[in-house]
Structure to design on (325 residues):
Protein backbone atom coordinates (compact mmCIF):
# COMPACT_ATOMS: atom_id res chain seq x y z
CA UNK A 1 0.00 0.00 0.00
CA UNK A 2 1.07 3.54 -0.66
CA UNK A 3 1.33 5.60 2.52
CA UNK A 4 0.43 9.29 2.40
CA UNK A 5 1.23 11.21 5.59
CA UNK A 6 -0.65 14.41 6.26
CA UNK A 7 0.67 15.73 9.56
CA UNK A 8 -0.81 19.23 9.41
CA UNK A 9 1.72 20.38 12.01
CA UNK A 10 1.41 23.90 13.33
CA UNK A 11 4.20 25.21 15.50
CA UNK A 12 4.86 21.89 17.20
CA UNK A 13 1.45 20.20 17.12
CA UNK A 14 2.23 16.50 17.12
CA UNK A 15 -1.17 14.89 16.68
CA UNK A 16 -0.64 13.51 13.19
CA UNK A 17 -3.00 12.03 10.65
CA UNK A 18 -1.98 9.13 8.42
CA UNK A 19 -4.07 8.41 5.33
CA UNK A 20 -3.62 4.99 3.72
CA UNK A 21 -4.85 4.42 0.19
CA UNK A 22 -4.74 0.95 -1.36
CA UNK A 23 -3.05 0.68 -4.73
CA UNK A 24 -5.43 0.95 -7.69
CA UNK A 25 -6.44 -2.43 -9.03
CA UNK A 26 -6.37 -4.24 -5.73
CA UNK A 27 -9.50 -5.95 -4.44
CA UNK A 28 -9.92 -3.36 -1.68
CA UNK A 29 -9.88 -0.46 -4.13
CA UNK A 30 -9.61 3.03 -2.62
CA UNK A 31 -10.58 2.32 0.98
CA UNK A 32 -9.14 4.92 3.32
CA UNK A 33 -7.71 4.04 6.71
CA UNK A 34 -6.92 6.66 9.31
CA UNK A 35 -4.47 6.39 12.20
CA UNK A 36 -3.57 8.84 14.89
CA UNK A 37 0.15 9.08 15.58
CA UNK A 38 1.27 10.60 18.86
CA UNK A 39 4.32 10.06 21.00
CA UNK A 40 5.71 7.44 18.64
CA UNK A 41 2.61 5.27 19.01
CA UNK A 42 -0.13 4.57 16.51
CA UNK A 43 -3.87 4.30 17.18
CA UNK A 44 -6.96 3.81 15.10
CA UNK A 45 -9.94 6.01 15.92
CA UNK A 46 -13.21 4.23 16.61
CA UNK A 47 -15.87 6.96 16.67
CA UNK A 48 -18.83 5.93 18.84
CA UNK A 49 -21.15 8.93 18.75
CA UNK A 50 -21.24 12.71 18.70
CA UNK A 51 -24.39 14.55 19.71
CA UNK A 52 -25.96 17.88 20.49
CA UNK A 53 -27.96 17.09 23.62
CA UNK A 54 -30.84 19.36 24.64
CA UNK A 55 -33.56 19.51 27.27
CA UNK A 56 -31.92 17.32 29.90
CA UNK A 57 -33.35 18.66 33.13
CA UNK A 58 -32.51 17.10 36.50
CA UNK A 59 -31.41 13.81 34.93
CA UNK A 60 -28.94 11.82 36.99
CA UNK A 61 -27.00 8.95 35.44
CA UNK A 62 -25.47 6.01 37.26
CA UNK A 63 -21.79 5.95 38.17
CA UNK A 64 -19.90 3.84 35.65
CA UNK A 65 -16.66 3.53 33.67
CA UNK A 66 -15.72 2.26 30.22
CA UNK A 67 -12.72 2.40 27.86
CA UNK A 68 -13.88 5.47 25.93
CA UNK A 69 -13.12 9.18 25.83
CA UNK A 70 -15.88 11.70 26.53
CA UNK A 71 -15.24 15.26 25.33
CA UNK A 72 -18.09 17.30 26.87
CA UNK A 73 -18.70 20.98 26.04
CA UNK A 74 -21.50 22.89 27.80
CA UNK A 75 -23.52 25.43 25.79
CA UNK A 76 -26.36 26.28 28.18
CA UNK A 77 -27.57 25.37 31.65
CA UNK A 78 -25.78 23.74 34.54
CA UNK A 79 -24.88 20.31 35.81
CA UNK A 80 -22.77 18.37 38.27
CA UNK A 81 -20.12 16.05 36.80
CA UNK A 82 -18.31 13.63 39.09
CA UNK A 83 -15.10 12.06 37.75
CA UNK A 84 -13.19 9.82 40.11
CA UNK A 85 -13.61 11.49 43.50
CA UNK A 86 -13.94 15.03 42.14
CA UNK A 87 -17.39 16.58 41.77
CA UNK A 88 -17.48 19.75 39.67
CA UNK A 89 -20.23 22.16 38.76
CA UNK A 90 -20.37 22.82 35.02
CA UNK A 91 -21.92 25.70 33.12
CA UNK A 92 -21.83 27.47 29.76
CA UNK A 93 -18.42 27.59 28.09
CA UNK A 94 -16.93 24.75 30.13
CA UNK A 95 -15.08 21.80 28.61
CA UNK A 96 -14.78 18.52 30.49
CA UNK A 97 -12.57 15.62 29.42
CA UNK A 98 -13.19 12.12 30.75
CA UNK A 99 -10.39 9.67 29.96
CA UNK A 100 -10.84 5.92 29.42
CA UNK A 101 -11.90 3.88 32.47
CA UNK A 102 -12.27 6.91 34.74
CA UNK A 103 -15.36 6.32 36.93
CA UNK A 104 -17.85 9.08 36.27
CA UNK A 105 -21.42 10.18 36.87
CA UNK A 106 -23.34 12.99 35.20
CA UNK A 107 -26.17 15.00 36.72
CA UNK A 108 -27.60 17.03 33.85
CA UNK A 109 -29.71 20.13 34.48
CA UNK A 110 -29.17 20.92 38.15
CA UNK A 111 -30.56 24.42 37.61
CA UNK A 112 -32.60 24.36 34.42
CA UNK A 113 -32.21 22.31 31.20
CA UNK A 114 -28.68 21.53 30.08
CA UNK A 115 -27.57 21.87 26.45
CA UNK A 116 -24.21 20.37 25.56
CA UNK A 117 -22.10 18.93 22.77
CA UNK A 118 -20.41 15.62 23.44
CA UNK A 119 -18.17 13.32 21.45
CA UNK A 120 -17.42 9.73 22.46
CA UNK A 121 -14.72 7.61 20.82
CA UNK A 122 -12.16 4.88 21.44
CA UNK A 123 -8.48 4.86 20.53
CA UNK A 124 -7.38 1.32 19.64
CA UNK A 125 -3.81 0.06 19.67
CA UNK A 126 -2.26 -2.08 16.94
CA UNK A 127 -3.84 -5.20 18.40
CA UNK A 128 -7.28 -3.61 18.19
CA UNK A 129 -7.71 -3.30 21.96
CA UNK A 130 -8.93 -0.06 23.55
CA UNK A 131 -5.94 1.96 24.68
CA UNK A 132 -6.06 3.27 28.25
CA UNK A 133 -4.22 6.54 27.68
CA UNK A 134 -4.67 10.01 29.11
CA UNK A 135 -5.45 12.89 26.78
CA UNK A 136 -3.67 15.39 29.02
CA UNK A 137 -0.50 13.27 28.87
CA UNK A 138 -0.79 13.19 25.08
CA UNK A 139 -1.07 16.98 24.87
CA UNK A 140 1.90 17.41 27.21
CA UNK A 141 4.05 15.15 25.06
CA UNK A 142 2.86 16.66 21.78
CA UNK A 143 3.36 20.29 22.80
CA UNK A 144 6.24 19.91 25.30
CA UNK A 145 4.24 21.60 28.04
CA UNK A 146 3.00 20.61 31.47
CA UNK A 147 -0.68 20.68 32.32
CA UNK A 148 -1.00 21.20 36.06
CA UNK A 149 -3.39 19.29 38.26
CA UNK A 150 -5.96 22.12 38.57
CA UNK A 151 -6.44 22.04 34.79
CA UNK A 152 -6.72 18.24 34.74
CA UNK A 153 -9.21 17.49 37.48
CA UNK A 154 -11.84 20.16 36.89
CA UNK A 155 -13.75 21.39 33.83
CA UNK A 156 -11.91 24.03 31.83
CA UNK A 157 -13.58 27.40 31.36
CA UNK A 158 -12.75 27.89 27.68
CA UNK A 159 -11.60 31.45 26.88
CA UNK A 160 -14.20 33.27 24.79
CA UNK A 161 -11.88 33.60 21.80
CA UNK A 162 -11.69 29.80 21.47
CA UNK A 163 -15.37 28.94 21.91
CA UNK A 164 -16.44 29.35 18.25
CA UNK A 165 -13.45 27.26 17.13
CA UNK A 166 -14.31 24.47 19.57
CA UNK A 167 -18.01 24.44 18.62
CA UNK A 168 -17.04 24.25 14.94
CA UNK A 169 -15.02 21.10 15.66
CA UNK A 170 -18.16 19.38 16.96
CA UNK A 171 -20.25 20.66 14.04
CA UNK A 172 -17.85 19.14 11.52
CA UNK A 173 -18.45 15.74 13.09
CA UNK A 174 -22.22 16.24 13.26
CA UNK A 175 -22.37 17.25 9.59
CA UNK A 176 -21.11 13.81 8.56
CA UNK A 177 -24.31 12.17 9.81
CA UNK A 178 -26.13 13.86 6.90
CA UNK A 179 -23.67 12.62 4.26
CA UNK A 180 -23.64 8.78 4.21
CA UNK A 181 -20.77 8.61 1.72
CA UNK A 182 -18.51 10.50 4.13
CA UNK A 183 -19.14 8.46 7.28
CA UNK A 184 -15.67 6.94 6.88
CA UNK A 185 -14.35 10.44 7.60
CA UNK A 186 -15.49 10.38 11.24
CA UNK A 187 -11.97 9.51 12.34
CA UNK A 188 -10.58 12.53 10.50
CA UNK A 189 -13.00 14.91 12.21
CA UNK A 190 -12.34 13.36 15.63
CA UNK A 191 -8.63 14.10 15.15
CA UNK A 192 -9.62 17.62 14.12
CA UNK A 193 -11.60 18.04 17.36
CA UNK A 194 -8.68 16.70 19.40
CA UNK A 195 -6.33 19.15 17.71
CA UNK A 196 -8.65 22.03 18.64
CA UNK A 197 -8.72 20.86 22.27
CA UNK A 198 -4.93 20.55 22.23
CA UNK A 199 -4.61 24.06 20.83
CA UNK A 200 -6.79 25.51 23.60
CA UNK A 201 -4.83 23.88 26.43
CA UNK A 202 -1.49 24.72 24.83
CA UNK A 203 -2.45 28.36 24.36
CA UNK A 204 -3.60 28.69 27.97
CA UNK A 205 -0.42 27.18 29.35
CA UNK A 206 2.02 28.99 27.05
CA UNK A 207 0.48 32.44 26.76
CA UNK A 208 -0.92 32.96 30.23
CA UNK A 209 1.49 30.98 32.34
CA UNK A 210 0.76 27.60 33.83
CA UNK A 211 -0.22 27.24 37.49
CA UNK A 212 2.25 24.54 38.54
CA UNK A 213 0.55 23.97 41.87
CA UNK A 214 -2.78 24.50 43.56
CA UNK A 215 -1.08 27.18 45.68
CA UNK A 216 -0.13 29.10 42.54
CA UNK A 217 -3.68 28.88 41.27
CA UNK A 218 -4.88 30.43 44.52
CA UNK A 219 -2.20 33.13 44.33
CA UNK A 220 -3.19 34.01 40.75
CA UNK A 221 -6.82 34.24 41.83
CA UNK A 222 -5.82 36.49 44.74
CA UNK A 223 -3.97 38.80 42.36
CA UNK A 224 -7.01 38.96 40.10
CA UNK A 225 -9.30 39.80 43.01
CA UNK A 226 -7.02 42.48 44.41
CA UNK A 227 -6.47 44.12 41.04
CA UNK A 228 -10.24 44.25 40.48
CA UNK A 229 -11.30 45.18 44.01
CA UNK A 230 -12.41 48.64 42.87
CA UNK A 231 -15.28 47.31 40.76
CA UNK A 232 -18.02 44.69 41.14
CA UNK A 233 -16.41 41.31 40.49
CA UNK A 234 -17.97 37.85 40.46
CA UNK A 235 -16.80 34.42 41.51
CA UNK A 236 -17.41 33.19 37.96
CA UNK A 237 -15.05 35.64 36.28
CA UNK A 238 -12.45 35.05 38.99
CA UNK A 239 -12.54 31.31 38.30
CA UNK A 240 -12.38 31.93 34.56
CA UNK A 241 -9.27 34.08 35.00
CA UNK A 242 -7.40 30.99 36.28
CA UNK A 243 -9.26 28.53 34.01
CA UNK A 244 -10.99 26.45 36.66
CA UNK A 245 -14.60 26.14 37.75
CA UNK A 246 -16.07 28.27 40.56
CA UNK A 247 -16.72 25.16 42.62
CA UNK A 248 -13.12 23.97 42.28
CA UNK A 249 -11.70 27.44 43.03
CA UNK A 250 -13.77 27.67 46.21
CA UNK A 251 -12.45 24.30 47.32
CA UNK A 252 -8.84 25.32 46.65
CA UNK A 253 -9.29 28.62 48.46
CA UNK A 254 -10.81 26.94 51.50
CA UNK A 255 -7.99 24.41 51.65
CA UNK A 256 -5.19 26.97 51.34
CA UNK A 257 -6.57 30.10 53.03
CA UNK A 258 -9.46 28.92 55.19
CA UNK A 259 -11.66 31.46 53.39
CA UNK A 260 -13.71 31.69 50.21
CA UNK A 261 -12.58 33.81 47.23
CA UNK A 262 -15.30 36.37 47.81
CA UNK A 263 -14.62 36.37 51.54
CA UNK A 264 -10.97 37.11 50.79
CA UNK A 265 -12.02 39.96 48.50
CA UNK A 266 -14.37 41.39 51.10
CA UNK A 267 -11.66 41.35 53.78
CA UNK A 268 -9.26 43.17 51.45
CA UNK A 269 -11.90 45.76 50.69
CA UNK A 270 -12.69 46.31 54.35
CA UNK A 271 -9.00 46.83 55.17
CA UNK A 272 -8.79 49.46 52.46
CA UNK A 273 -12.03 51.04 53.64
CA UNK A 274 -10.58 51.42 57.13
CA UNK A 275 -7.53 53.21 55.72
CA UNK A 276 -9.61 55.52 53.54
CA UNK A 277 -11.86 56.45 56.45
CA UNK A 278 -8.92 57.09 58.75
CA UNK A 279 -6.64 59.01 56.40
CA UNK A 280 -8.93 60.78 53.90
CA UNK A 281 -12.00 62.95 54.06
CA UNK A 282 -13.77 61.11 51.24
CA UNK A 283 -17.51 60.68 51.85
CA UNK A 284 -18.66 57.19 52.78
CA UNK A 285 -20.61 56.79 49.54
CA UNK A 286 -17.47 57.62 47.53
CA UNK A 287 -15.43 55.06 49.46
CA UNK A 288 -18.16 52.50 48.79
CA UNK A 289 -18.00 53.22 45.06
CA UNK A 290 -14.19 53.07 45.02
CA UNK A 291 -14.36 49.58 46.51
CA UNK A 292 -16.89 48.20 44.05
CA UNK A 293 -20.04 48.54 46.15
CA UNK A 294 -22.97 50.07 44.27
CA UNK A 295 -25.08 50.50 47.42
CA UNK A 296 -23.55 52.55 50.27
CA UNK A 297 -26.02 51.00 52.72
CA UNK A 298 -24.78 47.50 51.84
CA UNK A 299 -21.18 48.66 52.22
CA UNK A 300 -22.06 50.12 55.64
CA UNK A 301 -23.57 46.81 56.80
CA UNK A 302 -20.46 44.90 55.75
CA UNK A 303 -18.22 47.45 57.44
CA UNK A 304 -20.17 47.25 60.70
CA UNK A 305 -19.91 43.46 60.57
CA UNK A 306 -16.12 43.68 60.10
CA UNK A 307 -15.32 46.49 62.57
CA UNK A 308 -18.25 46.40 65.01
CA UNK A 309 -19.24 50.00 64.28
CA UNK A 310 -20.51 52.15 61.44
CA UNK A 311 -18.10 53.83 58.99
CA UNK A 312 -18.94 57.25 60.44
CA UNK A 313 -18.30 56.12 64.02
CA UNK A 314 -15.05 54.42 63.02
CA UNK A 315 -13.87 57.65 61.34
CA UNK A 316 -14.70 59.77 64.42
CA UNK A 317 -12.88 57.40 66.73
CA UNK A 318 -9.80 57.31 64.50
CA UNK A 319 -9.72 61.08 64.14
CA UNK A 320 -10.00 61.66 67.90
CA UNK A 321 -7.35 59.02 68.59
CA UNK A 322 -4.94 60.66 66.16
CA UNK A 323 -5.36 64.22 67.56
CA UNK A 324 -2.28 65.48 69.39
CA UNK A 325 -2.60 66.03 73.11
Amino acid sequence: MDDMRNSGRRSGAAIELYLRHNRPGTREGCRMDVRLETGGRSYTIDHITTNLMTGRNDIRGVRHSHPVFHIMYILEGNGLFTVGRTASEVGPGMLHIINPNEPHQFHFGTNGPLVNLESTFVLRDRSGEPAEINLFDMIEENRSIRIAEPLRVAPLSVPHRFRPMLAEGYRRILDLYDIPLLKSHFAVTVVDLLTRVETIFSSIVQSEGEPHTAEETVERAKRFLLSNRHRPVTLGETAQSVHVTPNYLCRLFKEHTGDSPMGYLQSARMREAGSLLAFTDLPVYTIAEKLGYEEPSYFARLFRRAYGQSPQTYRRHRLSADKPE
Q: What stands out?
A: Confidence is low (pLDDT under 50) at residues 1-15, 21-30.
